[in-house]
Amino acid sequence: MVNGAAHRVWPFCMSRGMYMHTHTEFLMGNEAIALGALAAGVNVVAGYPGTPSTEVLETVAKRRKDDVYVEWSINEKAAMEVAAGAAYAGARAMVTMKQVGLNVASDPLMSLEYIGVKGGMVVMVADDPGPISSQTEQDTRTFAQFSKLPCFDPSSVAEAYEMVQDAFDLSERLGTPVIFRATTRVDHGYESIEVIDADEWKQHPVEGFIKDPSRWVIFPRLSVINHAKIEARNAELSDEFSDYCRNFIVPEAGEDKRLGIATHGINYAYVREILDETHHPRLMRVATPFPFPERSAVEFLQGLDEVLCVEELDPVVERALIAVCGKYHLDVKIRGKLTGDIKPAGENTVESVGAALAAFMGEAPAEEAGVSAPEPPQLPVRPPVLCAGCPHRASFYAVKRAMKGRKTLFCGDIGCYTLGNAAPLDMVDTCLCMGAGINIAQGVFHVEPDTKCFAFVGDSTFFASGITGTINAFYNQADMTLVVLDNSTTAMTGHQPHPGTGRTMMGEVVEKVSIEAILRAIGLTCVETVDPLDHELAVETVRRVADEPGVKAIIFKSPCVVLAKPQARSVVDPDKCVGCQRCVKQLGCPGLVPKDGKVVIDESLCTGCTLCEQVCPFDAISGGQRIAMDLPQAGGAR
After folding, report:
1. Residue 429 belongs to some domain of the structure
2. Would 45 be classed as within a structural domain?
3. Distance, C-alpha 206 to centroid of its chain
4. pLDDT tens for residues 332-362?
5. Do 551 and 442 touch, CB atoms closer than 8 A?
6. Residue 82 has pLDDT above 80, yes or no
7. What CA–CA distance (Å, rounded) separates 474 from 464?
8. Where are the alpha helices (DSSP H) in 496-546?
9. Which of 4, 76, 260, 358 could form a disulfide with 105 if both were Cys (CB 3.0 to 4.6 A apart)?
10. Model pTM score
11. Does residue 576 form part of some domain?
């Protein structure tokens, strides 16, 4: 199809605004996705925080009506299953996560595709090209192919708002979960868009769960039958997607060079910004990477000699076009990542796409044509560091001092405390994925029993994925020290509540889940809770606990400094400071600043945690006041 002509009527292919009252809002992409889901009549939203997806669920919680349920689940697997249960009952459900969270949720999702759903269910996954704040650059479009799930890939904030509603409609019509995949530049981009008034949001009635073991209980025979149905459905859906208004072809303008450009997502915006509206090759925009719109692709390829595929992460469009050329015997050269014309990794930019298009079209790059911009000034190097006064710094430093001179392994995890790897702390030897540090420590112990193995995990991560590893360590008789860094929040992604905070996203105050009680229920007999900012006590506790046999735990409990207001700020007495800079060299706190041969404290950063006061050998720092913690007496919680 060309320019959106379609025989099937999709909701936003004809402006829904013609039938509903709308207004304009300036929205972040994630906010637009949330409002689109609410407009589509979503009943239940579950998720786990992770950049760049977090704001979707937070916006639902903020803008929802009273009949919409929302929760931060303990992890993505739990969120996926909560959403699935709601969809089984006929509700419209959405689950939100970042791309690495999809790994955690993949177990139920793979089976869910075979079972299907009754209410519309959208799996909102935020990919992170770069990566900017993730461990991997995995591409959810590839996961859609693997899981055989339909996938939507918006190019703008406005389109994200509209397409998530299409995703709900498609999911409910086909009885299948649908992946809605956006990337960071769409998730965190802003745009003024037309949105439907709240009083005209769709009201989706919920039928309720109807017992039917032949449908809802997965067995091998059912899987074989449904697998065949899935393959047939996806073949039909490929043809239907060729008529979807957001998969379109822009005809070539000006001189026909028999060239074509295929693109997707935010890269479509980059391409359109670069191309001359009066002179450009034929263009294909792919909004549904799976099932791939094959018929539309054949139409696009007719008469072309070469096509450049401009995409981020995996060469999904490129491989699909190569397959189409082979199937239909089309003599078209497909270029992109596989041919080295598009960089194989990292985030694309307008500049990198512009250079690729210029090379493909045989034109001089902008800088050679005399259009180069002035060279910007060199930015200072600013590596991420733990906040001034962060209790994690005190925890790491206490363990470092306590274990000095001993053969020790420090396994880290995902969270703010990953920054403990930076000098001068240098306290993270491994970091893989959420909860992995606990099991990695066990693996090292089993082959190096003379190594003292520590595993650091945050309170939110402990609930998300640390409990099973702790049980595994206890059951399999590992010798290791678990260190729970409990700052009473999910700090890295924006201070979301978790089971240990006693608050839910529905605004309810509930009983806090005790980490210490969980550890004791597992069977640990040595569990100590201590304030890491009580430095000498913390060091003594680590030394004593580390020498206990088996699995033991230290809970370092102190609130995140972003949420806890300073009681008083520390100051340096210039007459006592000798300029040794021990505080700077040992702690690396950004609030400690060398100046004129001595050290001063940045009042705008200092939280008065007193750690530097306790480290200074000359008592040159004073005035701070750490937050009082009501903790059991150290050495008694055994």
Report:
1. yes
2. yes
3. 30
4. 999 999 999 999 999 999 999 999 999 999 8
5. no
6. yes
7. 18
8. 515-522, 535-546
9. 76
10. 0.90
11. no
